[in-house]
Amino acid sequence: MLIGKGSDLRSSEITNEQAYYGRREFLKGGALALGAGAAASVLPGCVTSAAPEEQAPPSRKGPFDASETPTPYEAITTYNNYYEFGLDKANPARNSGKFRPKPWTVKIMGFVKKPADYSLDDLLAGLTVEDRIYRMRCVEGWSMVIPWQGIPLASIIKKLDPLPSAKFIEMKTILAPDQMPEQRGDALPWPYVEGLRLDEAMNPLTLFATGIYGKPLPNQNGAPLRLVTPWKYGFKGIKSIVSINFTDRQPKNTWQIANPVEYGFYANVNPTVDHPRWSQKSEKIIGQRLSLIQIAKGEAAVKRTLMFNGYGDQVASMYAGMDLKKNF
Ligand SMILES: Nc1nc2c(c(=O)[nH]1)N[C@H]1C(S)=C(S)[C@@H](COP(=O)(O)O)O[C@H]1N2
Ligand SMILES: [Mo]
Fold it and tell me: Does the N-terminal or the C-terminal CB of the chain have fewer CB atoms within 10 Å?
């Protein structure tokens, strides 16, 4: 069954990944998993005789990049949570085609020296877009590995120059019921809101993403601007952001408002604190195509969930002395 997944390779996803990495090795890697004729390559001798580039992970790994194989573009852009466009994973891709991410304005307000309505271009002017391959773990128990393009939120915040009284930021998604069918219903209180402590917002891992696989962010992934905090559950990653408020009070976030027993402010990935209705000890890997080499290495479509999603070295110090069972 896992081997069979290899034959689901679609030309669209091959094209996207190829364009991103600029090399043909993905084609070869996919082909390896395809035919029964390749079965002999599970034999150890054949695995080691594979050409080096077939075994090599994608190039351009930076210090922030996860070593896991990125999830195919197809899966990242068709298996989504974006309730404004529908509650099923397939709905955001189907229902967001007419969403208009351009022109886009972001309102900056609160305890900050440069409050204003910024066009997206002005907000990001002078800042450098970076590549980051991050693990992404949804609170529902599944995960992906996503090659983002984006701007560290710290550089945006420095440019806006917060006042000393600013301790948190609160962000909002656009309210546009004419473009977002589910905002005409009451599945969640709209607009979607999220918050971070200022030090979390300034952490070098925290990104405002503008692209995936080197292409502009698709609507279903939160175009034109969405938050990425890879050590937190995916729901912190608020999409299509239209405002940032610098505040002295801990803001509430949408899932906490909707269900405070199950969802908190911090939402740090934590395998030792189970969700009231399910375990958080492991996660299903979405869209994983296993090559025979990966099968031979014992990789599986389920993995153990890591504390802080594996980013403890970069983030654990921010929570020193805190009871993470209470502050979930
Ligand atoms: N505005 C808004 N942002 C949102 C959501 C949402 O429903 N609305 N879903 C969140 C959840 S639960 C997850 S797991 C991620 C999913 O991001 P992805 O679809 O790009 O993988 O977006 C988060 N951001
Ligand atoms: Mo999620």
Answer: N
What's the mean pLDDT in 60-77? 91
Question: Can you give the pTM of this predicted structure?
Answer: 0.85
**How many structural domains comprise the chain?**
1
Ligand 1 close to Cβ of residue 234 (< 6 A): yes
Tell me, what CATH number does 100's domain have?
3.90.420.10
* CA 189–ligand 2 middle distance (angstroms): 16
Identify whether 229 is part of a domain: yes
**What's the pLDDT score for residue 193?**
99
User: How buried is residue 275: exposed, middle or buried, by Cβ count under 10 Å (0-12/13-18/19+)?
Assistant: middle
Q: If you measure from the C-alpha of residue 136 to the centroid of ligand 1, how many angstroms do you get, rounded to a whole number?
A: 11
For the segment 75-100, what is each residue's pLDDT rounded down to a tens digit?
999 999 999 999 999 999 999 999 99
CA distance 106 to 243: 5
Q: How far apart are CA 232 and CA 137, in angstroms?
A: 7
